[in-house]
Every structure is written in structure tokens, then in C-alpha cells.
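Side project, low priority. Logging it here so it doesn't get lost.
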Amino acid sequence: MNHFVHYPMPLYNQDHATYCRQMYEWHMKMHHYQDQLRCFHLERAKHFQGLAEEKEEVSKKSNDGPAA
């Protein structure tokens, strides 16, 4: 899920109905793109949060170890 397509905005042409349809389709594609991007970044944030919590647990265990 690391491949995202950012579609170019359609250019205006003299056929207004076609342009409106193209703009509608473009906005729907961009909505899908934004959802994919949001999910990707949420997934990565959770991954790094897990790593940070794991590192914190390891450092607590090493500090609480037996004193010699």
C-alpha cells in the first residue's frame, strides 16, 4: 500500500458538461487518494508508537535491574 497516485486536475475545455463530469471524477479520485494517504500515515504512526513504547519498556527494565 505504498503506491499512491496523485491525479492531475483536468484542464477546462469548451464542453462544460464534460468538464463538470471530469471535475467530479477528479474530486472523487482525490478523496480516495486522501483516504489512502491518511490510512498509510496512521499505520506508520502506530508502528513508530509501538517502537517508542518498546524502547521505553526496555530502558525501564535496564534501570530496574539488580544493582551489583
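Brief comment: Helices lie at 16-63.
Revisit when time allows.
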